[in-house]
Write a structure and sequence with these properties.
Elements (H helix, E strand, L loop, with lengths): L2 H12 L11 H10 L5 H14 L3 H6 L2 H8 L6 H16 L8 H4 L7 H12 L8 H11 L8 H14 L5 H14 L18 H4 L16 E11 L4 E2 L2 E2 L10 E2 L2 E4 L5 H8 L3 H4 L3 E5 L5 E4 L3 E12 L7 E2 L10 H9 L4
Parallel strand pairs: 1-8
Antiparallel strand pairs: 1-5, 2-9, 3-4, 6-8, 7-8
The protein binds a DNA duplex (11 and 11 nucleotides) through helix 2, helix 3, helix 6, helix 8 and helix 9.
Length: 347
DNA sequence: AAGGCGGGGTC
DNA sequence: GACCCAGCCTT
């Protein structure tokens, strides 16, 4: 048996039952692929279930507000995916009369759809011969062929795409693409791959050369920056609270949070008080404040470590921009904020 | 070509 | 801690 046949054979025996494998509907395939970008199946699955339940068709998704979509996306991360998902849904529903682009070239034009996702949708939903190259494919091919070209270099990207295109089963591109990804996810894993019971035991170059552990090669470690966040949890006597939208570019764009003061270091209560003398928000208000967490809550993103303090500020009356405390759970927020809301006892 | 963008899981 | 995940976008 050749490479593709062994892979498809392994897949037929070992594949998981997943909801997006029961359909050829491009809307559902697209939704699953966006959710699964840089996200493991276990983490993305409940979101797929929730989205298909609330938005059965692309018209339902298009009719929603961005805030509503972000709320359902809350906790999944990489929120530009949700913003692009919603924008693309509106585009397809309104400009294309709900008719999904049906080929790689046209799919690639959609917001949030790159080479991988266009290949996945066109092959799985439309049986187009377009090879997917995701993290699993890089790993499987790098090991099987013993390729040490860095997978995130320009030459590496081209080399692996070319190889994947040569290997794809042109009769069953949909099955083949899912098979190689599933094989990478379940069998040819990053750590402790199951090499002792592998259909490619005799043909895997990395296994013969004892280089399974070192492949694939990847360059450029992301450097982590540290930031200090001070959230102002301002509550008035009418149980209203300040909550605002992060409109600027950067992390958590269009999600909501308490007013934020970033500082150069972790602040003591005295330093925080000095800071507030010049704060335009608090200048005009008489208030009492206390600190929710004595030691910083450390929220780790892939590229930022956020050392966070929540300052509880009680005032008599907040401006009209404040929202009722009861409504706070309607807004999409970062996990850092929703964790606080879930643990803090509002009076 | 390089860096930004989340949160959770594994070892 | 380091690394990874059905990557994409901007600069």
């Amino acid at each position: 048996m050749d490479f593709k046949s062994k892979l498809i054979n392994w897949y037929s025996i070992n594949k998981r039952e997943l909801p997006w494998r029961k359909t050829k509907n491009p809307y559902n395939i697209w939704l699953s692929e966006i959710i699964l970008q840089q996200t493991q199946v276990k983490q993305g699955l409940p979101y797929y279930v929730a989205f298909t339940a609330k938005y059965p068709t692309i018209f339902d998704l298009a009719a929603a507000s961005e805030t509503e979509v972000l709320k359902l996306w809350q906790g999944l991360g990489y929120y530009s995916r949700a913003r692009n998902l919603h924008a693309t849904a509106k585009y397809i529903a309104n400009e294309l009369n709900g008719e999904f682009p049906n080929n790689y070239k046209d799919l690639l034009k959609l917001k949030g759809v790159g080479d991988y996702t266009a290949s996945a949708i066109s092959s799985i939903a439309f049986n187009e011969i377009a090879a997917v190259v995701d993290g699993n494919v890089y790993r499987v091919l790098a090991r099987y062929f013993g390729i040490d070209t860095p997978i995130n270099s320009t030459t590496g990207i081209k080399e692996f795409k070319k190889l994947a295109t040569q290997l794809i089963d042109t009769k069953k591109p949909d099955v083949y693409n899912q098979a190689i990804m599933e094989f990478g996810a379940l069998h040819c894993k990053p750590k402790n791959p199951n090499c002792t019971n592998c259909p490619f035991e005799t043909s895997c170059v990395a296994l013969q050369k004892n280089s399974v552990e070192t492949l694939p090669v990847k360059l450029n470690k992301t450097k982590v920056t540290t930031k200090y966040f001070n959230f102002l949890v301002c509550i008035d006597s009418e149980n209203r609270i300040l909550f605002e939208k992060r409109t600027h570019k950067g992390i958590w764009q269009n999600l909501y949070q308490f007013p934020l003061i970033e500082s150069e270091k972790s602040l003591s209560s005295e330093e925080f008080q000095l800071l507030n003398i010049d704060n335009s928000l608090l200048k005009t208000l008489k208030f009492d404040y206390s600190l929710y967490n004595e030691s910083d809550i450390v929220h780790k993103l892939s590229h930022q470590h956020l050392y966070t303090k929540f300052w509880i500020i009680e005032v008599n009356k907040l401006p009209q921009t404040a929202i009722p405390l009861d409504s706070i759970t309607n807004y999409p927020t970062p996990v850092l904020i929703s964790d606080f809301i879930n643990h803090f006892s509002f009076k």
